[in-house]
Amino acid sequence: MLQELRQFFRSTDFVKALVITFGAAVPVSLGLWLGQVPYFLSVAMGVVLASGSDVPGSRKHKTVGILVSAAIAMLASIAIGLASGSLYLLLPVLAVLVFAISFISVYGFRASLVSFAGLMAIVLSFIHAHTGADIFIHGLLLGTGGLWALLLSLVFHSLLQRRQAETLLINCLRQTARYIYLRGKLTTESPEQEALQKELYNLQVKLNETHEALREVLLHERQSSGTSNYHRKQLLIFIELIDILELSLANPANYERARALFGQSVRVLLPFIKLVFELSAKLDDLADSMEQGHALSAEKDLEPLLQKCSDSIRAYVEELKLPDAREGALLLHNLLDYEEKLLQKISSIERLYLNLEEQQSIGLQSRESRQFITQQDYDVRILRDSFSPKSPIFKHAGRLTIAMLLGYVLGIIFPIQNAYWILLTIVVIMRPGYTLTKERSKHRLYGTLLGAVIAGLVVLLVQNVYLYAVLALVSLILSFAFIQRNYRTSSIFVTTGVIFIYALITPDAFDAIQFRVIDTLTGAAIAFGAISFLWPSWESLSIKGNIVKALHANRSYLAEIDRYSQHTSQNTTDYKLARKEAFLQMGNLNAAFQRMSQEPKSAQQQLMEIYEIVGLNHTFLAAAAALGTFIRDNKTEAAPEDLHLIIRSIDANLAQALQTLQEEAPQAETVAREELVEAYDHLEGRYNELVAIRTRELAGATYKPIAPGFLKNLKEARLISDQLKWLHTISGNLKKAVAELV
Q: Rounded to the nearest 10 degrees, how much is the dihedral formed by the CA atoms of 335, 341, 345, 351?
């Protein structure tokens, strides 16, 4: 518990919350000193609104985000102020502003935060109606608050950027460690197989998000300010972690085949599984050391475990005897190779952390590094293309507009105190998708009710304005700190903060509690009703697009593997870019399916068919990664023309699946069956030749050490043939599953 608290207080979220609170407190303090609190309160509101878009990224992106947030908040506030004199003018102005500002989020995550700032400015404009020149003064002061927020962001950028990079890297270490653990856990017989697989899919989504954030922070910063030794180490650790993810995705898939191959002799796998768990724990320990700033704990010697794995292979061969044991022994040798590589990668990260790594080039030029950052396109064309009833963002903007108008009208018709809380709840809860809106509704209600109970008890038991002031300030800091980390907890502190502020300025704070709960319930009901009945964006309507993108990414990844197999390309950048895109699209497909599975049963069209496709896509990528890592790390002896022919056939299956999904006429070039059989025969023939040589070498002996070079060739012949067959089978199953889906 103490360690978790220490981690929280050291986190970027908490430090950023302190900066925002300081930024808001300074103008309020000046207002108290000068006796002009209302005006300086507008500056404080501008700070809070503009700071929302200050998320991990380059200095340039942060600056533009804060300035645009401040400008939109200022203009929206002035527009509402000018229109508030007439209800007939206010309603259409409110509708146009809500739709236009929410439509901005079509440009991605940072744009959605800018949009949120504008919508919040609209809501806050209803707190106190300004008239005359005060409308413009209030708007300009909001903009001034945005400039003050920008100044604070620039001043604290280096500190926060360093903390953000550290936090993201620590999270990446923990997530990768968990991923390795889950891949090992899935090999054991367990009644939790389905739950573990679901967690693995969700973890892949989180890893993708962490990787994207790290690319944004590390690569953007490298371009803008050069590479310090500390920053260079972080980037090298990140590169190693991506390679570890590929290794982990690729190799443990063989465990499933091993369980089928070994049957009752599954105990032979136990040393390998134990070693995987130890490697996972090693990464976790490294994350702890990095987080606490301590030296690494005494390194556990894993050589005995590696030796146990080797002994397990020998015992298996001696028990089953050759040639019956050959298939299983080769598979176990490949698993041992994987775990040794994993240990090397983790040891490399440890050396980097200890600053013992020799000076070396990171291997990415500035131009190349830019390719790894997911660039957001801000072309006006995107707005034009999305301005259609078919666009999810267009539907969301329309739903939000109607919900806001309904909430405002209800606040006018019924005697609701502080009706703007209804609008606030709608803005905070409503998201383009049903699942996220549902989750935020539950968290908002939970947080509001629990916060109201806590604050109510404090107000009831203690009558001390100084205590209310301190608790209001603490609540404000914690609400900012948890807003990205845990929305439910943030809602609790938002509610307690609002109630303590009311307790400071009015003796009857219990009325505020009552109306706060009623307004939150009303806003949540409106938001949930809108997302359920107004042009609902069910995942079943859009998930085919995710499948299409995943198949395209798999084809690109497969094409890069093919280029390596032909020895025509050694372009690591192109390979890594294709790998990155394949991982991202797999994560996006997993996330879309998870959202779909949480929607109402009536909206879950063809759920099992899509689940099969998601599973096949994950398996295909694992098999492709296994083939890719082996070919990239080893100069293969297999005939390039045979590999190319089989990969072409696999690609043809994926292309046909894409054509079916996109309802296009068949265009994919197929490979003649005779050619395919001949290519497989060549691969099997090479393996059989090596087996024959080994058989003669044994000459009746039960066991004889095998030369490392010969073992490498034998493993290569078996692995490449098996992986290509496996990829061909999966791609064929994907083609059939897609045909059933359509």
A: 130
Both tokens assigned to 101:
């500002």
The answer to whether 645 touches 679, Cβ cutoff 8 Å, is yes
At 704, the pLDDT band (50, 70, 90 cuts) reads low
Listed in sequence order, the DSSP H helices in 35-86 are 37-51, 59-83
Q: How confident is the model at residue 702 (pLDDT cuts 50, 70, 90)?
A: low
Tell me how far apart the alpha carbons of residues 329 and 203 are, in angstroms, rounded to a whole number. 32
- Alpha carbon 358 to its chain's center: 32
Give the Å distances, CA to CA, from 139 to 70, 82, 90, 220.
10, 11, 17, 33
- pLDDT of 225 reads 44
The whole-number pLDDT of residue 447 equals: 81
Residue 524 has a pLDDT of: 84
Angle formed at CA 655 by CA 651 and CA 659, multiple of 5 degrees: 170
C-alpha distance across the termini of the chain, in Å: 51
**Largest pairwise CA distance in the chain:** 102
Looking at residue 535, what DSSP letter applies? S
Tokens for 664, please give them: 């296009």
For the domain made up of 539-741, the CATH class stated in words is mainly alpha
* Buried/exposed code over 587-621 (b: 16+ C-beta within 10 A; e: otherwise): bbbbbbbbbbeebeeebbebbeebebbbbbbbbbb
**Alpha carbons 100 and 103: distance in angstroms, whole number:** 5
Least confident segment among 218-232, 563-577, 649-663: 218-232
Full-model pTM = 0.78
Q: Outline where 293-419 has alpha helix (H).
A: 303-320, 326-353, 366-371, 380-386, 392-413
Measured CA to CA in angstroms, residue 116 lies from 51, 101, 106, 283 at distances of: 11, 8, 12, 38
How far apart CA 567 and CA 733 sit, in angstroms, is 29
d(CA 490, CA 24): 18
d(CA 275, CA 651): 35
Task: State which CATH number among 3.30.70, 1.10.287, 1.10.10, 1.20.58 fits the domain covering 165-253+263-293+303-353.
Answer: 1.20.58
In the chain, where are the structural domains located? 165-253+263-293+303-353, 391-533, 539-741
- Spatial neighbors of 428 by CB under 8 A, at least 6 apart, are 440, 444
Structure confidence by residue, pLDDT tens digits, 163-173? 778 888 888 89
**H helices present in 354-391, as ranges:** 366-371, 380-386
Highest mean pLDDT among 47-51, 160-164, 213-217, 706-710: 47-51
Q: Which of these, 33, 38, 63, 42, lies nearest to 152 by C-alpha position?
A: 63
Residue matched to tokens 């042009």: 535
CA distance 515 to 730: 58
Helix/strand/coil percent split, the chain, to 5? 80, 0, 20
Give the three-state DSSP class for 592: helix
Dist. CA 163–CA 317, nearest whole Å: 52
Closest CA to 592 of 738, 437, 742, 436: 436
List all residues 6 or more positions away from 340 whose beta carbon is below 8 Å from its beta carbon: 306
pLDDT band at 252 (very low <50, low <70, confident <90, very high): low
Q: Please give the full DSSP string across 539-565, using - where no structure is assigned.
A: GGGTHHHHHHHHHHHHHHHHHHHHHHH
Residue among 731, 595, 344, 449 nearest 441 (CA):
449
Digit-coded pLDDT (tens) for 412-422: 887 666 677 78
User: Taking 50 as the threshold, does the pLDDT of residue 367 lie above it?
Assistant: no
Helices (H), 251-324: 253-262, 270-292, 303-320
Across the chain, mean pLDDT equals 78
Sorted by sequence, the CB contacts under 8 Å of residue 365 that are 6+ apart come out as none
